[in-house]
């Protein structure tokens, strides 16, 4: 029994190591794409395109030779890391609905960006506007939760419906942008712009660094918020930090998964991990691994069968969840705080 547990942990650590290496490679790829006008980076960029062409030839595909597919896959890989990372805290705090709320808030941000573009001719990245509005929405949700006496999920439900209503009204005012709003509702890899992919890379690095730096504090407030207050931990600050990180992740994931499906990557990999994990740390590791399986498997299904990427990723994630239930030896998760 002890030998089996030790082997399992080693396999988990190997998986996390490979995931970290893959993430570093994706960030490096996006950096090379951004700096390809620089001679050294341009040489690496040309070699990467050649490698993509050779890979396409070997696999009989027409995918890896195109830079926009690099950006989409890199963005998906990074989403598969940071979404379950933040989602692990949300699920254990019974805040799964917050991801869906902030996705609708980010959609309102996209709508505002389109309206500003139509009225002023501004041609900046929509994801930056979505990020700003998403963070403001996250702060608004936290403020409502702290200031109202209603049940905890009422402010979240109000923000969810209200922000989507605002987004639809603004979209109805702008009929000249030529942008297909359906892509933002259901996700589309063509929505991933160079600036959007680079933004996702920067935000992913920041989210991972913040979680590593505040791991113990976030763990404390996740399992015993009252004790954290007694211990004079600034609970409001860490709650706000968690919600803002959720908004950041949601905006990045919006590009591929869309408003409707974005919450799935915050919840489903974590739900799968809780079925077979024995500690919070193991849940964190397994949720990231399940997230990678969902993203990579979803891209494979999407490319091979010409299906929408977002839906494919979510379906693979749900398949992982069902398999985890079958593999679980218990009916409910008994997670320790280790």
Automatic annotation (TrEMBL):
<keyword id="KW-0472">Membrane</keyword>
<feature type="transmembrane region" description="Helical">
    <location>
        <begin position="126"/>
        <end position="145"/>
    </location>
</feature>
<feature type="transmembrane region" description="Helical">
    <location>
        <begin position="309"/>
        <end position="328"/>
    </location>
</feature>
<feature type="transmembrane region" description="Helical">
    <location>
        <begin position="196"/>
        <end position="215"/>
    </location>
</feature>
<comment type="similarity">
    <text>Belongs to the ABC-3 integral membrane protein family.</text>
</comment>
<feature type="transmembrane region" description="Helical">
    <location>
        <begin position="157"/>
        <end position="176"/>
    </location>
</feature>
<dbReference type="InterPro" id="IPR001626">
    <property type="entry name" value="ABC_TroCD"/>
</dbReference>
<dbReference type="InterPro" id="IPR037294">
    <property type="entry name" value="ABC_BtuC-like"/>
</dbReference>
<protein>
    <submittedName>
        <fullName>Metal ABC transporter permease</fullName>
    </submittedName>
</protein>
<dbReference type="GO" id="GO:0043190">
    <property type="term" value="C:ATP-binding cassette (ABC) transporter complex"/>
</dbReference>
<keyword id="KW-1133">Transmembrane helix</keyword>
<dbReference type="GO" id="GO:0055085">
    <property type="term" value="P:transmembrane transport"/>
</dbReference>
<feature type="transmembrane region" description="Helical">
    <location>
        <begin position="12"/>
        <end position="32"/>
    </location>
</feature>
<feature type="transmembrane region" description="Helical">
    <location>
        <begin position="236"/>
        <end position="254"/>
    </location>
</feature>
<feature type="transmembrane region" description="Helical">
    <location>
        <begin position="260"/>
        <end position="277"/>
    </location>
</feature>
<dbReference type="Pfam" id="PF00950">
    <property type="entry name" value="ABC-3"/>
</dbReference>
<feature type="transmembrane region" description="Helical">
    <location>
        <begin position="284"/>
        <end position="303"/>
    </location>
</feature>
<feature type="transmembrane region" description="Helical">
    <location>
        <begin position="102"/>
        <end position="120"/>
    </location>
</feature>
<feature type="transmembrane region" description="Helical">
    <location>
        <begin position="68"/>
        <end position="90"/>
    </location>
</feature>
<keyword id="KW-0812">Transmembrane</keyword>
